[in-house]
Write a structure and sequence with these properties.
Blueprint lengths: L1 E3 L7 H12 L4 E3 L6 E3 L5 H11 L9 E3 L3 H4 L8 H10 L4 E6 L6 H4 L4 E5 L4 H10 L3 E5 L13 H8 L5 E4 L9 E4 L6 E4 L10
Parallel strand pairs: 1-8, 2-8, 4-6, 5-9
Antiparallel strand pairs: 2-3, 3-7, 4-7, 5-6, 9-10
Helix pairs in contact: 1-6
């Protein structure tokens, strides 16, 4: 189904509808501050496997990130941050970044694979953050477009719905999305290494 939610003031009933869907193992496509994402509850193994099937990847090879509500939420899943990392995150988030950290033991084993790292996002969009807040734990986020070719349906929720309505339970119409993905920053070594330059400009916060 295509569900209209306004990012400025997300309807609590609509948010609850999405949360109930996620709790029952459903898949949802939702807006962020960059491109639209495909997600599920990180605690639901079958839902994660469904997403892997859609993306054509094996769960242990998946490179998924989490959407968290705020900084305190991040600390539940990553090893302790140093002062420099915490200051940067406080300035840059919510924002169009994916920060990769060393994972702690709370990350589901299916997701931590052999690398023991996890990507974290706090998008500057009230819709996914409210969903996560009401759900009580993060949702997985993975892009719905081919990484090499940004397609038109990536930004238009109605076209996204046409393409994915048989594969997911809910497509949230939160307005047109961006065509530029998040900037991916590796923080696992203590430094900040940009792995993919996207919408976020890290230099503004360092």
């Amino acid at each position: 189904m295509l569900l209209k939610i306004y990012p400025e003031n997300p309807n609590p009933k609509a948010i609850q509808q999405v949360v109930d869907c996620l709790k029952s193992g459903g898949l949802v496509i939702y807006p962020t501050d960059t491109i639209y994402g495909l997600g599920c509850d990180i605690t639901n193994q079958k839902a994660i496997e469904k997403i892997c099937k859609i993306r054509g990847i094996k769960p242990d090879k998946a490179n998924f990130s989490f959407i968290c509500y705020d900084l305190s939420h991040i600390s539940d899943y990553v090893k302790p941050l140093d002062t420099t990392q915490f200051r940067l995150l406080k300035k840059a988030l919510p924002g169009p970044f994916t920060f990769i950290f060393n994972a702690n033991n709370n990350v589901p084993k299916l997701l931590s694979s052999n690398r023991k790292t996890v990507g974290i996002r706090i998008p500057d969009n009230n819709i996914p953050r409210q969903i996560v807040h009401e759900l009580g734990n993060p949702i997985i986020t993975t892009s719905i477009h081919d990484e090499d070719e940004i397609m038109e349906y990536s930004t238009d929720p109605e076209l996204i719905h046409e393409k994915f309505e048989d594969l997911v339970d809910i497509v949230i119409d939160g307005g047109y999305g961006d065509a530029i993905p998040s900037t991916v920053v590796d923080c696992t070594s203590g430094d900040f290494e940009i792995l993919r330059q996207g919408k976020g400009v890290l230099e503004e916060y360092v």
